[in-house]
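Weekly structure sync, notes
Attendees: PL, DS, HV (note-taker this week)

Item 1: HpcH/HpaI aldolase/citrate lyase domain-containing protein
DS walked through the input record. Source organism listed as Rhizobium loti. Sequence as pasted into the shared doc:
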Amino acid sequence: MAECGFDAVLIDCEHGSAGPERVEEMARATSLSRIVSILRPEDPSPWMVTKYLECGVDGLMIPLVSDAKVAQSIVDRFRFSAPFDHQDRMLILMIETIEAVNNLPQIMAVEGVDAYLVAPGDLALTIGAQPITYEWQQGNKPQAVAEVVDRAIKTIVDAGKICGTLVNHSDVGSFVDKGVRLVYDHANHMLSYGAREFLGRLKQSPYKLEAVSA
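Item 1 (cont.): predicted structure, written out as tokens:
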């Protein structure tokens, strides 16, 4: 990822299996590769903020922040856990529920947050929509989901805050046009897209070739 020119990698402990020991190794690897490490913990518990900051990651992306009280507790623990360099680390709060969207003005009033990431998949579940599908990856979100995502993005951007969201190769440009400045995609999606692109070009060859993975 560093060689490709990306600014950061996400270490996902909410949906992944990495524990503190493995996180420490990954944080060292990213530091040596001169790329920023952002970690998503299992939940917004304050003690997890301390645990993972002490593993050496450059920032945290906290899930399930639905109101200002939770946001303030995260900021307080973030500053407590990194008293001398918290200003040099990134704190991102994830907006994943309709409650969080409705509470965005109060959440954004809490000082000490660097960015807010709108999570379309979790938002879909909270409004009773279908979870992420392959069609989503092609930029075809259900209208109800697209509307609530756009509403959250507009609220954040209009407040002059840094907004992020999940993107893919087909819709990243449209989100940047809406003011999104923090974009991310899953590594397996990137790999899948790249593999399909490679295979598609191979099949267009005038020669009868077979794709063989190493």
